[in-house]
Amino acid sequence: xxxxxxxxxxxxxxxxxxxxxxxxxxxxxxxxxxxxxxxxxxxxxxxxxxxxxxxxxxxxxxxxxxxxxxxxxxxxxxxxxxxxxxxxxxxxxxxxxxxxxxxxxxxxxxxxxxxxxxxxxxxxxxxxxxxxxxxxxxxxxxxxxxxxxxxxxxxx
Amino acid sequence: xxxxxxxxxxxxxxxxxxxxxxxxxxxxxxxxxxxxxxxxxxxxxxxxxxxxxxxxxxxxxxxxxxxxxxxxxxxxxxxxxxxxxxxxxxxxxxxxxxxxxxxxxxxxxxxxxxxxxxxxxxxxxxxxxxxxxxxxxxxxxxxxxxxxxxxxxxxxxxxxxxxxxxxxxxxxxxxxxxxxxxxxxxxxxxxxxxxxxxxxxxxxxxxxxxxxxxxxxxxxxxxxxxxxxxxxxxxxxxxxxxxxxxxxxxxxxxxxxxxxxxxxxxxxxxxxxxxxxxxxxxx
Amino acid sequence: xxxxxxxxxxxxxxxxxxxxxxxxxxxxxxxxxxxxxxxxxxxxxxxxxxxxxxxxxxxxxxxxxxxxxxxxxxxxxxxxxxxxxxxxxxxxxxxxxxxxxxxxxxxxxxxxxxxxxxxxxxxxxxxxxxxxxxxxxxxxxxxxxxxxxxxxxxxxxxxxxxxxxxxxxxxxxxxxxxxxxxxxxxxxxxxxxxxxxxxxxxxxxxxxxxxxxxxxxxxxxxxxxxxxxxxxxxxxxxxxxxxxxxxxxxxxxxxxxxxxxxxxxxxxxxxxxxxxxxxxxxxxxxxxxxxxxxxxxxxxxxxxxxxxxxxxxxxxxxxxxxxxxxxxxxxxxxxxxxxxxxxxxxxxxxxxxxxxxxxxxxxxxxxxxxxxxxxxxxxxxxxxxxxxxxxxxxxxxxxxxxxxxxxxxxxxxxxxxxxxxxxxxxxxxxxxxxxxxxxxxxxxxxxxxxxxxxxxxxxxxxxxxxxxxxxxxxxxxxxxxxxxxxxxxxxxxxxxxxxxxxxxxxxxxxxxxxxxxxxxxxxxxxxxxxxxxxxxxxxxxxxxxxxxxxxxxxxxxxxxxxxxxxxxxxxxxxxxxxxxxxxxxxxxxxxxxxxxxxxxxxxxxxxxxxxxxxxxxxxxxxxxxxxxxxxxxxxxxxxxxxxxxxxxxxxxxxxxxxxxxxxxxxxxxxxxxxxxxxxxxxxxxxxxxxxxxxxxxxxxxxxxxxxxxxxxxxxxxxxxxxxxxxxxxxxxxxxxxxxxxxxxxxxxxxxxxxxxxxxxxxxxxxxxxxxxxxxxxxxxxxxxxxxxx
Lengths: 156, 283, 789
Description:
Oligomer: heterotrimer
Mean pLDDT of chain C: 96
Strand order of the largest sheet of chain B: 4-5-10-6-7
Low-confidence stretches of chain B: none
Structural class of chain B: alpha+beta
């Protein structure tokens, strides 16, 4: 048996302390230990982007990050963006432009967009599409996602 | 798809990390950005008994310039290389190459030391290090890039050796450069890529560097191409000739995505484009 | 202005989705989100052999791993659960028995052999490593072209053949008429295997109520009703003791429209152990074991007369259906649809189509978005373009000459399907107008003149959607997929709840059905809640598949709403002391026309249910209506896609410049949602045309085992897609709706293939297979250049 480790981490502004096995992935930690099931798991090898969260302000795949690594870190997930009756402007743009269908890739897509809107120019559709290309969506064909991001980029 | 069990250690300094590596040797794996390692852990293809997480070794996160050379710490993230003004000014080819590494979320985590140590034959950083004759520093010694990559996922690193920094010469300000990559989907591993720099004098090529990746066991310099270019003006005819040389210089493998023949074809095509673009950028 | 005109119209409006706030905030209820604290987690040891006898299984070491609860093999399930058999009345069909765990032998890499139950998935996977299975390998049957031969090894001994189904459709003497054709075009077309690849992997969570002895199965499924019905049979339980719930499902596309061995196992073990059991698959399991689709070889020929009129069509189809005949659709579904729909929207006077569904050692084939029609459309549209090239006629013009005309509807297709009136020619004309087809051809000419490989591709198709009880979703399948039930209820608080048997998984049916009910009943949109994805919602339901839900559930909602409205009006006539004819319902109020007398639905509900004495006893009705809707035959949906693309002459990378879809999905309920369905369908069709391919090697090993190897399009590979809605009300369905969930995927592969062939026309290249990857383009172009030189 490997030694378990104490993890103190802040998720969406709330501090948590849990003792975990080193091999526990951050995606499973969020979902199973903290009950934050908004972060979804799609491939566990870093391709689909469904589990994207912000770690210390930067987007990252939660499936490629160990819960123990989160010790002392600040994690942000989709649950921190807005409430059902008080959507964030980004979430509202997704709703307005019908940028989601089944909604499974959506949390990861939103967290990627938060980071893109901070870091990228997003001046053209090509730049927006390039920025979104690490988040696979099987429902929307991306067109409406592009429109939602375009609207948000213009508002910055 | 969950990793097998391992112990986890988190050194805060290079010395501490080295001591742990010395203690555990081949049973340990170093965790840097984790973008290549963690998928392998999840697939249980790699099963270390100990994981040494060097993300808190903050001393290895730096980009600095000394005497016309850039010294970049092993824990520098791809996104930093892509956006660092110093890198964009002094090594624009490196900054451009970084755009092809995965996606933003991957570049936010992936590190230069991790990429060099992992030595994927279709990864951008090994190619760039080879193109610029970089020096790869470890705790124990320094390696010339050309001697560092021994095969797919294989380097000259000993079990208790840790990459600490890479030193690359800045691109001459008048040098033209280009990085051309072909992948099926944005951010995917490349079928093939070609990087080139050209320095021109009196309308002729004074110095040319050309390297390719994704078409061999390791990234490859193409010395035959470089020699054929040197001393010549870049004409369409010459481009076609050296593209043929590039095609003949490689011995790629066929895989699921691309046959050896198609990869040879791609390297010729990308060589043409890289040289034309690099030539156009010379001053 | 009349009251009717004042009424808010929801149908046709761009109403924002009801589903979105919960999905955007991470508050959705996907199967794996279900909390079940003491559940046992399952992991499967899956076959690494394509075809082998299981000689022995050793589980002792695995069982000894701390945290492991139990291991099960097929032998341990004896008496617990019966095998599943997808039956059919179709002649020349051989069903196959499917066990929850491989029984006696394995038939594909990835087939579940041993189940480990442990305290968590990590530990369960630790135990998988320690299971030892002795296999006696059998020859693998991989190539469908040789699997049909008598000498081939056989997967299912009891069937005595690998040909699990065969069928023929014929009209006239196609072979004879073909000989008289002025020109004949044809060849062997190959559409390579795909997987639906929903981003949410499959999962099943079984929970057992010990007191009531009831089973709740939370499932990633499109067909909760079908699963419930079958589980009742094979677990020998009354249906009311089983509840199958699929609340939020992360995409389906057909991949969650069949019953899977793992789901049966979870249900059976939950019942046996009397405790919660859960399984969430990972992406490797999804790629290896979720039903695959679109794997056909089509030898087809088209004969056209000198005036450009189709005279005959023939096709010989082999469909590779993988290891089993999948429940409930059978092995016949996908391949048969290829010959059913091959004649497409055209007048084809003589036709012969023959198909064989062939078992091979690959994951079972199931429905995937479009089912057969992406292939039939690819082949037919290629043939039309090949004929146009031979006749030197513009491909749009050749289509115009052959599309079924307005005055010919209803038109009986050579395979027996009947097209009701649909906008075939109008979609073609609208798409051409939207893309400015003549200008596009001029641009192409100048691009070609400068050496660029620029192509324009058209695809026109028709599909049967919203099919009713007279046509089985799969040939001869003994399950009724042709009806849908709505139970609409005004409860004692004045809230409206509508229960359905459908199972929305991205289509936004909570929104569109509420739009229909809001208009038909007169309730406020926000007061309506749609219940779906729950086998306990209505007495009989199947689910959401085959472009049926807007048509069938929309029809049922319309009928039930109208009857409930009559009840509201009757109650109101007492309460408002007015004649029934003078009362109407709109925007949540029941009112007497031309007066200010009105009651809210809440007030009516209180009066009917709670305030004794306000209504005479014989006027007190339950404010609930259940109606079953059956469109009997279904309706026709159609579209024309036009793609303009360019092939990089050096690297052979394909870039799509323009993409236009003009479609007729009848009366549009929500144009925003229709657009989204088209965009998503086209993206999957682009994937099918250019990127996606499930590859098995000659020993049956799956080579595209990860998401890095099975390449679906990202935002960078999909162009902006323009849509035109023709809004031609269906004459055959209540509400005039036509189904449209699959169409995007049906048209896109053909449009892309034709555009590629058009781009490569200067090199004399035709396109016969998809996906046309850069590697395949390289080989085609190199071969053409070598030939030219």
